[in-house]
Amino acid sequence: MEPTPQLEGGTYEILxxxxxxxxxxxxxxxxxxxxxxxxxxxxxxxxxxxxxxxTTTNNCVPWDMVPVxxxxxxxxxxxxxxxxxxxxxDVFGVxxxxxxxxxxxxxxxxxxxxxxxEFRNLYRYYKNTQFVKFAVLGPHLFMVFRVGKTPNDIKTFxxxxxxxxLTYLDNRSDHEYVFPPQHEFAWK
Length: 188
Description:
By secondary structure, the protein is of the alpha+beta class. The chain has helices spanning about 10-40, 90, 115-125, and strands at about 60-70, 70-80, 90-100, 100-105, 130-135, 140-145, 155-160, 165-170. It has a domain at about 60-175. Strand 1 (about 60-70) and strand 2 (about 70-80) form a beta hairpin. The chain is elongated, with a radius of gyration of 26 Å.
């Protein structure tokens, strides 16, 4: 009489071991492919150096940040509540990055008189104004604000970004804030 064949385990155990073997094989092949990619294209290791907190005077939602030399400008969206006027410090914060820490600075970097007036007018005349993002296009920094319900209802402030300084240019450059073409050729 022949012995009856024994199963390796239940259905769950069989499927689990097969999936683990396939996963290990896939991981090995993925590492080999990644190493080959690094030799062909090169690689820069990215890793988290640390974490820190940014303190603000208001309860706000951080939206974007942009480096200007060794300083960073942070943009926030804040619910003002009982305040009648939105101030520059409600929307922006300037911080210096030293010794892996952010240290709050004053807003002198952004205090161009024409910009301050146009910023006040933006929040005065557009009820639902929200800061959206910073965009660096060439030598210019655009501060983008949504003033309506659709993503195309925007106002921008244009700055000249040179080394660690900003020079305010105007708020009439909405048409310049466009995404670059997706292709370097024209479709026919």
